[in-house]
């Protein structure tokens, strides 16, 4: 099937295709994201100082505990804002990265994309996408913690996605929707440096230096590498982001446990040790690996079906 020239392919179409692929990947792997979020909160030093100890459980016990204590479908609690997040986040980051790669930064004469440009483009694209999607991430984190709050005898903070948005705006104004956006953007920049940069670099390295074709095998290898690197780079910032977004707030929307992402980082390392920054790493990696695989295979196949050249 002949392919359309890149300049003839509207950016809106790119946005829609990447959003569809991301939504599929998000729903398939969401239970691992919920497990990861619960693990990142458990054993929080700042909560112990406030007399609120939380039991620590590993990945499997946490997941099984959610099913036993809250029900099977609670593994998808917060999935709706997560899908909304990826519609915005993945759509923006993919369009931004391809624009930077193909236009703003530009490829080399041999049509390759230098690594330093790929790193810069991936980080910038991820940061831009996550800034716009940060409010949905905040709602997702708070909804994911509702089951745990009920088991601890606490009053629910939110009853659903729309109520969560209303509550956050009522307490902190529109600016309150961007609570925790700094570590969120930092995380996204690191994750995309791992995801977009690794996938793009590994895929085109394989095409240039091996006998592999631009097909499912090549895409699978590249996406597998991107998931590992993204998990390693992004987990510490993800832990900080989750804790800042989940912390209780006063009537003005100010956090009661942490003053900033730096303060949260210092408290975590001092109170729990450096490895606390990698709490939830296993479910993070176990989620990112299949997420990357599902996303990239879906995205590449959609592009092929509609007759557009691969990523």
UniProtKB/TrEMBL annotation:
One of its GO terms (cellular component) is mitochondrial inner membrane. It holds the Pfam family Mito_carr. The keyword Ribosomal protein does not apply. Its main location: mitochondrion. It is a multi-pass membrane protein. It is found in: Mitochondrion inner membrane. InterPro entries: MCP_dom_sf (IPR023395), MCP_transmembrane (IPR018108), Mito_Metabolite_Transporter (IPR050391). Keywords: Membrane, Mitochondrion, Mitochondrion inner membrane, Repeat, Transmembrane, Transmembrane helix, Transport. It catalyses: chloride(in) = chloride(out). Signal peptide: none annotated. SUPFAM superfamilies: Mitochondrial carrier. Solcar repeats lie at residues 13-103, 113-205, 214-305. Facilitates proton transport across the inner mitochondrial membrane and may dissipate excessive proton gradient associated with oxidative and metabolic stress at neuronal synapses. Regulates glutamate-induced proton conductance in astrocytes, shifting the energy metabolism toward aerobic glycolysis and lactate transfer to neurons for ATP synthesis. Can transport chloride ions with lower efficiency. The transport mechanism remains to be elucidated. Homotetramer. Belongs to the mitochondrial carrier (TC 2.A.29) family. This is Mitochondrial uncoupling protein 4. It comes from Pleurodeles waltl (Iberian ribbed newt).
